[in-house]
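Q: What would this chain look like folded?
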Amino acid sequence: MTDIRSGDWAERFAPAALVPYIRLARLDRPIGTWLLLFPGWWAIALAAPGWPDWRLMALFGVGAVVMREPSHFSGYSWRWARRCC
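A: My prediction, written as structure tokens:
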């Protein structure tokens, strides 16, 4: 039994060859990215003298996605290694 919804954006818009990797990286479930991203954006907004620089906001957006994904890959590989051997 799975909790993955059929017909979500990953199945509709992504190429079929990329769907397993999107699922592995959990890009179809963005809550972890939001939990990393919003405090960073909030801190940038509080520290900026006016409107925050959009490049810095974009950098934090990319960083939230990039830093979230290695934890999923390492967690899956650790569980696989424990089951395997």
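Helices lie at 9-13, 19-24, 31-47, 54-84.
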